[in-house]
Amino acid sequence: MSAIDxxxxxxxxxxxxxxxxxxxxxxxxxxxxxxxxxxxxxxxGILPSALAALGAEVVLAxxxxxxxxxxxxxxxxxxxxxxxxxxxxxxREAQAEWGPTMTDSGGFQVFSLGAAFGxxxxxxxxxxxxxxxxxxxxDESVASQHGQLAVIDDEGVSFTxxxxxxxxxxxxxxxxxxxxxxxxxxxxxxxxxxxPTEPYEYQKEAMDRTHRWAERSLKVHRQNIExxxxxxxxGIVQGGRHEDLRKESAREIASxxxxxxxxxxxxxxxxxxxxxxxxxxELPEELPRHFLGIGEPSDVLEGIASGMDLFxxxxxxxxxxxxxxxxxxxxxHLRGEKHQNDFSPLDPEISIPGTEGFTRAYVSHLxxxxxxxxxxxxxxxxxxxxxxxxxxxxxxxxxxxxxxYRADFVRTYYHG
Length: 416
Prior knowledge:
Number of helices: 16
Largest sheet: 8 strands, parallel
Number of strands: 16
Shape: globular
CATH superfamily: Queuine tRNA-ribosyltransferase-like
Strand order of the largest sheet: 4-14-13-12-11-10-6-5
């Protein structure tokens, strides 16, 4: 029996969009839902209580980083990830004392320490995605800190710590062991994430390796009776931008008996829809689906239209730290001179809890002068914006008007 329960409440009249509820041991997540990324057990610049006020119902943390610092044993001794970071979840309904959490497997770090080391690699092929729209697989500020060794083999990956250069090794079994200690409600099987620019032959090799690692991850989790009662495991579909590989991978992962399915890896912008659709067509309807590393507004709506339920991404806080914010009429960069005398709200068309009353002129002053508060306000605004976008999509699905909602948003966001 799974530690989570997923129910579909309503499907859109056209397409695959669906609204549901995902019940975890620590509360209910109303889907589709955006999952803010708390890499090191914190969403950068946002207090857990403020995150809840913004409407977040679940957060995701990074297995690789928490393994290195402070170590999974400390988090286990603290009572698990949610208690350690004082994450109590959404206040809108009675839940458990601590809020729902997720952890990734460390697979993204295999990618960033290995083939992508020293490169600014995004979820999408760079020449097909403008800088401001690219979705980073990992935070760019972390990329330059990684150690210079990552060797992938069929058993796992060996890598050096970016903290002290010490040598470490992840296998599927070790990744699951660490995630058991972290104690999140949902976690991911160990996988190999590839660059969008890797050739077809390597995408297939990495996909096959991911399938073998998925079986091993699932086996070691199912053998832990206590963990199975408290934690759900998601398998990850790989295959890059190739529709045939995505279909094959989805079919294989779906056959193994996971509690949920993640869509991982990378795409080019122009063929994301085809690769995603190919994968989703092979997935069981009754399982929750998580689109890993996707957070740019139109891509989130594309994912929802394709039948995805959960999304996570660092982009909202990453661009916020640099003084850029999402608005209903597109991204604006508050460092620009034209905002110095602009006393209008950050976005006159939306109110984000905790950022009401701040003007573009004020936040422009903060980010131009290097004040920490500027990054905090922008990050809060951006996370709130994406949470509001996804909740609006959920309401639209329930009301039978998702296609209209999506078209209206995209038209306004990109053409103002």
